Amino acid sequence: MALGDRDLARGDVRHERGKSQVLSYLIRICMPSTADTPEAFADQCKALGIPEKRLVELGVFAPQWAGFVECALGWPGAAEAIWWIHAHTKDRGWHVEQEVRDIWQAEISEHTPLKPDDLLDGAVDVAWFWRAYGTLGAERWEAIYDAAKLASGGIGHNRARLFADVMLGRLDEAELIKRIQTKRHQDSVRALGLLPIPIEHTQNEANQTVMARYIIMQQFLHGAKQFGSQRQASEKLAVRIGLQNLARTAGYADPVRLEWAMEVQAFRDLADGPIVVAVGDAIAKLTINAVGEAKLDIEKRGRPVKTTPQVLKKHPSFIELKERQRELTKQAVRMRESLEQAMVRGEVFEVAELRAWFAHPILRVMLEQLIFITTDGARLGYLTKGTKLLDHAGNLAVLKKSQKLRIAHPIDLLTTKEWHLWQQECYRNERIQPFKQVFRELYVPTRDELDEGDRSHRYAGHQVNPRQAAALLGARGWVLRMEEGGATRTFYDVGIVAWVDTRDGFLTPAEVEPATIETVRFVRRGEWKLLPLAEIPPRIFSEVMRDIDLVVSVAHVGGVDPEASASTVEMRAALLREMSRLLKLDNVVLEGNYALIKGKLNRYSVHLGSGVVHQQPGGYLCIVPVHSQHHGRLFLPFMDNDPRSAEVLSKVLLLARDEEIKDPSILEQITRTR
């Protein structure tokens, strides 16, 4: 009320002294307390006679109050619409305090799986928009749309308005294409992917519409080559985001799946064999190897060389080939990440879709090395030619066109009681999976956790480096909660939010001190009531605990052994069992957390968690690992970088054949008993 008829002051008002600027600043940094309730707020607004327009402006200007404003207005969906505007405004918010921005970002993360950087780049959560708009209604949406400028310090809100206009059909396709082709308008490229696909279209017509828009974006991308590197980079980004928006509009759960479908034709040349560039007596060959990596081999006068000959270096065809290798390498990384997340989400695939992807040379290699399970749980197996499942015993089952599959999670393998047989098959056939699946660490609730009910103290007391822990969690989709002193990860497909609580917070004024983990708990999205651990889907529980275990292992600073994680030890024990069986190492026995080795020179124990070696007798044995030497020499059945597992296996293998050791620094430490 103190503002009167004055407008809320946009931009950086932290150092201004005018009445509207000071009041606006106070409004923006003011946060609801735990004692504040939306109902009490609504009663106060009604008593003061605050008009609807001012309440809408308040919600957009200081979105931490959006839920309170929704209650006061009586507009279901208003808070979601306000947060959508903020999430899709092109504004880094430097005029707002970092602490406030962090709180806003944490709230946005509960509404959308899109990353903050992708949102800033122009990615759009289409489902979120229609959810908010459908609940709010057209007339009330317009009120929030009109106040959108209060979400930015400049003109960044225009992007959110443009995207909304396109989805609502206020801009037609012809106008967007004209902007793209005549003005090279980058936000129009992003927006082209948001145009609704007419509901009267058949599936075939819808596919043709998607393909036509994809081609327009590719033509725009091809035209970027005429500009400098900086302009090319920005236009490539616009196309990448536009394709993601197109995928979400077309209903793909993961935008990368549209990319795979569209690129099958573009990869026909690689599917038929190497791509060769020959200049004089020098030849360059681009191939896809057995694990889906793009390899560039150089020959001169018929012999392999490591250094690229000068005649090739500056040749346009070779430069183009090298650029394609870089793009393929990046794409392979994205594919591995996407397939792993599909397993975590329990994403369902059609048989026809999988069969089509087998024409993609990189994707085919990855799909062939993953175990799939039918949605009814009746069959598991490695996908063969996109039409059959191969089980661990070598039996083939033909898939019906109507069947649906998902990538099996270790919890599925555990349920079959044949997990060990899948591990044996994987090692026997030297399969290298695109990510850990068969030998993935699995975490299930303990009896004590189930008895306690709604929270886990499994990692209570572990102290971690706050900055390192924050970085590790952030890379795995967690968002720091500065106010609450913890972090959250939202599983959007099931509407569950996982919390990890710490005693002192991950990034506090005393961030030089370690953060102490306390509890792990789960709630429904948008709610605070704790869910019983018994009700959490086993796949989600396991992945959350796997994330926390990673943090405890890598960012650990306390006195408790961080490598003593039961799941990590079990995974390495399984690897050792299969290695010993295949290499016929009958002098290795697994007991608890140790591998006990009866060598020719002495007896040894290797801790499966830490990799520490002791002689029996003789005490500690120092073997310094050189992790780079393990790569390519020791078989691990997954592409993930896991140097500690490679170290443990290497030490066991070395000591099992201690009579072959040549390193004098190791030999002089060994207490010979024979």
Q: Helical proportion? A: 40-55%
Radius of gyration: 29 Å
- What coarse outline follows from CA principal-axis ratios? globular
Would you count the extended β strands for me? 21
* Physical arrangement of strands within the biggest beta sheet: 5-10-6-7-8-9
Low-confidence stretches: 628-632
Largest β sheet strand count, sense and barrel closure: 6 strands, antiparallel
Structural class: alpha+beta
> Hey, roughly how much beta strand do the residues contain?
5-15%
Straight-line distance between termini? 91 Å
How many helices in DSSP terms?
A: 29
Report the average pLDDT across residues: 86
Could you explain the architecture of this structure?
There is one protein chain. The protein is an alpha+beta fold and 674 residues long. Among the domains are: 9-170, no CATH class; 171-251; 447-554, TATA-Binding Protein (2-Layer Sandwich); 566-667. It is 46% helix and 14% strand. The strands form four sheets. The protein has a six-stranded antiparallel beta sheet with strand order 5-10-6-7-8-9. Strands 11, 12, 13, 14, 15 and 16 form a six-stranded antiparallel beta sheet that branches. The longest helix is centred in the middle third of the chain and has 30 residues, at 316-345. The radius of gyration is 29 Å and the shape is globular. The N and C termini lie far apart (91 Å). Residues 628-632 have low confidence and may be disordered.
